[in-house]
Amino acid sequence: MRTILFDFDGTVADTLPLIFTAFRSTFQQFLQEHYTDEQIVALFGPTEIGILQNELPPHAHDNALAHFYRVYTDEHSRVQNPDNIRSMLDELHSTGIQMGIVTGKGRKSADISLREWGLDSYFSVVITGDEVTHPKPHPEGIFTAMQQLGATPAETIFVGDSDADVLAGRAAGLRTVGVDWLLVTQKSGKFDPEPDYHFTDVHAFTDWILRR
């Protein structure tokens, strides 16, 4: 194994609580409606821009997006990414494994999280929802990342916390790893379909990778 491609939110970044807060604040401000976490997860697929465009009237789009980014950025100073995630990335990076991100979030919000939590140095490629025509579960983003890294399916795995991640990885011909090692993930119950491997502990996953 030479290459690991990760989903971002809920996988290597504990950003889902921040995303929920930013969307909830935006919808409350511009729609005067309260959205639950489950309702927000149901909107996932498009980038943040697409979600807000789908939910809000056109005249509110620019102000709502500015509000979303402001709240989302501020939340990073209040919440830190778990230390065990950074330890995992440090260990994997030190072995020479190349790592990349394939995420449905937009480029701006991905860059905010990578910068605010100091994660950008670990990943050789970051493919966001802005750079693909077809979001996960379509494998386009995975194919793009592999092409940029010069990786082959036989030496690459895809790691994520949602059914869409497993489906995208399978469609790209990769072995898939489903994870629910963070307190807040997109999963509610078992994966469907089941990934090739399943981990609930960051250290167990790291040990598994380093033994291969």
UniProtKB/TrEMBL annotation:
This is Haloacid dehalogenase. InterPro entries: HAD-like_hydrolase_sf, HAD-like_sf, HAD-SF_hydro_IA, HAD_2, HAD_sf, PGP-like_dom2. SUPFAM superfamilies: HAD-like. It holds the Pfam family HAD_2. It comes from the Bacteria.
